[in-house]
Design brief:
109 residues, 4 helices, elongated, 0% strand, mainly alpha
Length: 109
């Protein structure tokens, strides 16, 4: 379980940094933007859910990842060349929901 905490911490640092970089600083071309959102926030939700103890904590962990993704998306309005996008938020939500479905099928950690 220690590796899950390390990956979660790396994601908590790397994902907001990547999402809040000005557009001019991003590598071009990027892979599919929506796929990046789905994988990033779905991965974070999967890790956070695996570290939770019980269904209530798991639900709160998944909700926290989604809320964090929404806040990051809102903050992009003040980043040069970036902006809020409902489709990005939908990809984030889809990743979190998919992670929740996977967690429901996996045995407890």
């Amino acid at each position: 379980m220690r590796w899950e905490w390390m990956l979660l911490l790396m994601g908590v640092v790397a994902i907001p940094l990547g999402c809040l970089l000005p557009n001019s600083r991003l590598p071009h071309p990027l892979p599919n933007d929506k796929l990046l959102h789905f994988v990033a926030f779905g991965g974070m939700a999967l890790l956070a859910g695996r570290l939770a103890h019980g269904a209530t904590q798991m639900g709160l962990a998944l909700a926290a990842v989604f809320v964090a993704s929404w806040i990051i998306e809102l903050l992009q309005m003040w980043v040069p060349g970036r902006g809020f996008c409902w489709r990005d938020l939908a990809a984030n939500a889809a990743g979190v929901l998919c992670a929740g479905a996977c967690l429901a099928l996996l045995p407890p950690a």
